[in-house]
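Researcher: Please predict.
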Amino acid sequence: KGHKECLFFCVREEPVVFLRLENDFAPYTPRRKENLHENLHSLGKGIHVQKLELTIRKELHDFAQLSDSSYYVYNDIEHFKDEPHAVRINCEEDIQVTEEVYNRPVFLLPAYRYQRLPLPVDGAPLEQQFDAFVSFLW
């Protein structure tokens, strides 16, 4: 309250999908099987994380349909106790991407703005990434 505008930036470079758990969604990040302790990063130039999330959603749905609408995820990647867990995926709506989750408040809060600005984990952002950040502020 008292603010004219709320700006929300998602600066995560790695893709994130949100899987339905009861009445909410929980975030999950794909990881390489060689190293389950690290999120995917350093995806390379020309990789659009939003498109990658949409591809991951479709693949998760397709894999789940091959396994009685179940897909397995890890919640405890430090100790792997009682892992993995089965998550029900009945339809693509059971999987949401970052933009869908963080754009929800726009309908109720007209002064809310969301921007995905994937920044590299290692090193400084590219000039075009910095320019996109500054132009969003104006």
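Model: The first strand starts at residue 6 and ends at 10.
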